[in-house]
């Protein structure tokens, strides 16, 4: 399954300063080809994240202060971690935390 994943608001700094990634998620190997946000987050951490995972994830979810949009809709309206990703979805992570 292919997705577009975007990072902004400073989150891109954790991902090699690349704002947009076109990713191909592998078959899960368990006979279930369904990917959820719960599966995507650790995949991003393990495959794209370049530094400081604690600034992107806290436990099994994103850190507070990171806004997540799926196809321009707040993921909280879509079920957050349980949202089933669809081919060609666009997932955006926007950091709302800024140093002062």
From TrEMBL:
Q: What does the UniProt record tell us about how this protein is modified after translation?
A: C-terminal thiocarboxylation occurs in 2 steps, it is first acyl-adenylated (-COAMP) via the hesA/moeB/thiF part of the MOCS3/UBA4 homolog, then thiocarboxylated (-COSH) via the rhodanese domain of the MOCS3/UBA4 homolog.
Q: Does the keyword Glycoprotein apply?
A: no
Q: Which SUPFAM superfamilies match?
A: MoaD/ThiS
Q: Name one GO biological process term.
A: tRNA thio-modification
Keywords (alphabetical) are: Cytoplasm, Isopeptide bond, tRNA processing, Ubl conjugation pathway
Q: Where in the cell is it found?
A: Cytoplasm
**Keyword tRNA processing appears in the UniProt entry:** yes
Cross-link (Glycyl lysine isopeptide (Gly-Lys) (interchain with K-? in acceptor proteins)), chain numbering: 100
Pathway assignment reads: tRNA modification; 5-methoxycarbonylmethyl-2-thiouridine-tRNA biosynthesis
Q: Which InterPro entries match?
A: Beta-grasp_dom_sf, Mopterin_synth/thiamin_S_b, Urm1
Which sequence ranges form a coiled-coil region, renumbered to this chain? none
- Would you tell me the protein name for this molecule? Ubiquitin-related modifier 1 homolog
List the source organism. Answer: Amphibalanus amphitrite
């Amino acid at each position: 399954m292919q997705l577009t994943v975007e990072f902004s608001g400073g989150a891109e700094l954790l991902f090699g300063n690349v704002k947009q990634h076109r990713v191909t998620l592998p078959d899960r190997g368990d006979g279930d080809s369904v990917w959820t946000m719960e599966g995507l987050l650790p995949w991003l951490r393990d495959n794209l994240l370049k530094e400081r995972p604690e600034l992107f994830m806290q436990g099994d979810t994103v850190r507070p202060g990171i806004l997540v949009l799926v196809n321009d809709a707040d993921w909280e309206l879509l079920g957050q971690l349980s949202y089933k990703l669809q081919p060609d979805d666009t997932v955006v992570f926007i950091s709302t935390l800024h140093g002062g």
